[in-house]
Amino acid sequence: MTRTDTIAGRAVLIDEPAGAASDTLVLLHGWPDTAALWDGTVAALSARFRCVRFTWPGFAPDDADRAPTLDDLVQLLHQVVLTVAGGQPVTLVLHDWGCVFGYHFARLHPQLVRRVVGVDIGDAGSPAHVAGLNLKAKLGIAVYQLWLALAWKWGGTLGDGMARQMAAALRVPAPAAAIRARMGHPYWRAWTGGYRALRPFEPAVPMLFVYGRRKPFLFHSAAWAARVAARAGSRVLEMKTGHWVMVDAPDEFQRALADWLG
Question: Which residues of 64-85 are buried (b: 16+ CB within 10 A; e: fewer)?
Answer without folding.
Answer: eeebbebeebbebbeebbeebb
